[in-house]
Give the backbone structure.
Amino acid sequence: MNKLETAAGTDLARIAQLFPEFSERLRTTMQAQAVGVERYVDHIQYIADLVGSEHVAFGSDFDGVADLPAGIDDCRGFAMVLEEMRQRGFSSVEIEAISWSNFIRVFNAVCG
């Protein structure tokens, strides 16, 4: 049985402790490849073009990820993302949907 199989069903923090060399390598790699707001919006645009903007929503796991796009250290950074989206031609309806209403729609559908 390998480390991952042994840790199955435990919390992610426990699993991360089992693989310190991987965690450090990932952190180093991510820091070297830090992206800015423009690249972040590239991803939003790609997904919106691929499946429609009604299937895109912001996540705000500021405490759950190793690295964030440059300039997005907390929720205040989303103002730069919204401005970049406006400049790229996202409509106000699309921006509102991606910012919060898509999440609320899915949350209500799943959780009632």
The chain has six helices and no strands. The chain has two domains: 1-33, 34-111. The chain has a mean pLDDT of 81.
